[in-house]
Amino acid sequence: MQELVNMLISKNKTIATMESCTGGALVNEITNALDASKVLKFSAITYSNEYKIKMGVDNKIIDKFTVYSIETAKAMSKTISNFTDSNYGIGITGKLNCVDENNLTGSDNMVFVSIYDKDNDNYYTMSIEVLDQPRSLNKKLIVDKICLFLKNIV
Q1: How many angstroms separate the CA atoms of 75 and 82, rounded?
Q2: SS3 call for 96
Q3: What is the CATH number of domain 2-153?
């Protein structure tokens, strides 16, 4: 993560995150890096549909595609980028091997990630199938994959 933060600093770029299932694991790793305050503008943990919508995600996207979809991750990434005027916004939504009684649709072991590049109005997306292991290990797996993915984008 330190390498990624250094890359963002050298390119004078900023980042913001809207995380759901990872519960702030990504922003935690970002803030573990020296000088993270030079690139990180804001982070939101929107664990519920209600707060995704309050942050600006269009409820019609959630209604049409479900909260567990690449479309919702894209809306989260663009919303947080616009909210903070950051060069990159990251949206993460999905399930880590659990049933969500409030949102029964979708796979129980799939996470959807979107990185919105505001400067180029472009989305980079990926889906991550999580493993049958503790949540903390799946969060680490997701964060590591996002870090590599973002390094290739920046």
Answers
A1: 11
A2: coil
A3: 3.90.950.20
Tens of pLDDT along 58-70? 999 999 999 999 9
Lookup: tokens for 95: 């399930």
Structure tokens given for 36? 């993270």
What's the gap between Cα 81 and its chain centre? 11
From the list 61, 41, 33, 35, the residue with the least C-alpha distance to 49 is 61
Per-residue b/e over 105-127, b at no fewer than 16 CB within 10 Å?
Answer: ebeebbbbbbbbbbeeeebbbee
Pairing of strands 88-94, 15-19: parallel
Tokens, residue 137: 């290990």
Buried b (16+ CB within 10 A) or exposed e, 61-91: bbeebbbbbbbbbbbbbbbbbebbebbbbbb
Task: Check the CA dihedral 35-14-62-120 and report its sign.
Answer: negative
Find out whether 43 and 27 touch, Cβ atoms under 8 Å. Answer: yes
For the chain, strand residue ranges (E) read: 15-19, 40-45, 88-94, 110-117, 122-129
Domain spans, the chain: 2-153
In this prediction, residue 97 has a pLDDT band, given cuts at 50, 70 and 90, of confident
